[in-house]
Design a protein that fits this description.
6 helices; mainly alpha; elongated; about 200 residues
Amino acid sequence: MTRIRAIAAVLVAAAVLLTGCKDVNQPATAVPQGVAAVAEGPHNAYDVLFLQMMIGHQRQGLEMLKLGRDKGVREDVVNLAGAIDVTEAEEVDRMSGWLTGWKEQATGSDDHSSHAAHGGQAATGEEQLAALRDASGADFEMKFLNLLIAHQHNAVEMAQQLKTNGQNTTVKQFAERIELSRTQQIQQMLVLVSG
């Protein structure tokens, strides 16, 4: 058993205990109705950086999710990918709108390493995405779920950094929702990995 599979097995056991075998056909939504369309109030440079980086992060995630919808074998995997895709596409639009309202660009630097001190995380590598595109069947699903687990964990870390360093109340509330929803998604995917 590889180290990754061993770690995944431990995480699956923990997720099952935490979720009480939650139905994976009921994916968690990230942004319920009622999240402000405008992020009014003061904001700082970290709020801007977070939104710019999260937009890039989620656009990359949308590419993975499309593959999950198109190439997934199990209905649970296809449904989960579709539900996350809808939520994250809406989030990208919302975040872009906030930045436009602040007269800021929707995209920042592509050099994620330059943002490391600000909580910036490395993006999913092109090699990983290429391997995902080339995979099929059960091999695809395992690669897809493991890659998406890592990707969503990265979003959790970014959201936690924003809660500490950001200023805008709306964006901080949004980061809390991202942290919660991505954690729930990770738990659902760990259950799928074990199945």
